[in-house]
Design goal:
10 helices, seven-stranded mixed beta sheet, globular, alpha/beta, 34% helix, 13 strands
Length: 319
């Protein structure tokens, strides 16, 4: 691999692949690599653990994959660079891409085709190379990844469980659609932006008319009985990514029989929300299992290796 000096590298990258590096659009333009490549795109992206788990999977599954040197990168791509760089990733022989904040929704008009899951969620987190269409097909593995993570890590079935979802961005849309598909008892969308939150709730009501779907603004510490009994509270906001981030809601409002799933994760340990829930004896987990499941599902789309075989490798790499 030969990269030139780029805005994201800070120094000249060597000829060896380094999963710890964060590359930039300028690096992509200078890239000379014949082997198949994969990448995650976002801004910010330096915290992403996707290269660690995907490259661990490539190493572990080597005998089940073509011997073509396929590897996974991390690129910091600004919103205004996405329309230009997606075709460039295609030209540079990338076979698959993952999208994270802020690209999951913005990418949809730039794709040649989107799956039913991505259409229902209104967001794509996984792109698959489509040579016949000379572009990218959008998929969404976030929702299924969330369901698998919630059921295995929290021992909570989504069917019959009321879900309180914090956020209305790309990840929240996928989680909402998957929870409703799984038969959750009700869904409450909580978001600072009323327009964005109500828009998501309206869209979901059309697709799932038989389930109670509501919207509400932020919680007040003075509220009582703010959550339904047995609720699964899911944080799909960015709060929790950075050390010192406050919880996205007052933890004292959580009912004693609630469970908490925080879709964020960070190297600093448990988020404030997860830590507070655990202190009160509630089942709570961060987003690493969801990250590993959505990654394993994407790996299956790109490489044909079943997600159930890949997940243990990816989750182990995240630990």
């Amino acid at each position: 691999m030969r990269f030139r000096r780029g805005a994201g590298t800070g120094k000249l990258a060597g000829t060896m692949f380094c999963s710890e590096k964060t590359y930039a659009a300028e690096d992509l333009r200078a890239l000379r690599r014949e082997e198949p490549s994969f990448a995650v795109l976002g801004k910010p992206i330096a915290h992403s653990l996707s290269p660690k788990m995907h490259n661990a999977a490539f190493d572990a599954m080597r005998e089940r994959l073509p011997a073509d040197g396929r590897r996974y990168f991390r690129f910091e791509i600004a919103p205004e660079e996405l329309a230009e760089t997606l075709p460039l990733f295609f030209e540079k022989n990338f076979l698959g891409l993952n999208l994270t904040i802020p690209h999951k929704v913005a990418a949809l008009p730039l794709l040649k085709e989107i799956s039913s899951e991505a259409e229902t969620a209104g967001a794509a987190n996984t792109l698959v190379r489509d040579d016949a269409r000379d572009g990218w097909r959008g998929e969404n593995t976030d929702g299924r990844g969330f369901v698998r993570a919630a059921e295995t890590r929290l021992r909570r079935k989504l069917a019959g469980t009321p879900v309180v979802l914090l956020g209305a961005g790309g990840a929240a849309r996928a989680i909402a659609a998957a929870a409703l598909e799984a038969g959750c008892a009700s869904l409450a969308v909580v978001n600072r932006s009323r327009e964005r939150g109500e828009s998501l709730a309206r869209r979901l009501r059309i697709r799932f008319p038989d389930t109670e779907i509501s919207f509400r603004g932020e919680f007040s510490p003075a509220e009582k009985n703010a959550f339904p009994d047995g609720a699964l509270v899911v944080n799909a906001t960015p709060l929790g990514l950075k050390p010192g981030d406050p919880p996205p809601l007052p933890p004292e409002l959580l009912p004693p029989d609630a469970a908490v799933y925080d879709a964020t994760y960070g190297a600093h340990g448990a988020s404030a929300l997860v830590a507070a829930a655990r202190e009160r004896g509630m089942p709570a987990d961060d987003g690493r299992a969801m990250l590993a499941w959505q990654g394993a599902l994407a790996f299956e789309l790109w490489n044909g290796v079943p997600a159930d075989d890949v997940f243990p490798v990816m989750f182990s790499a995240l630990q």
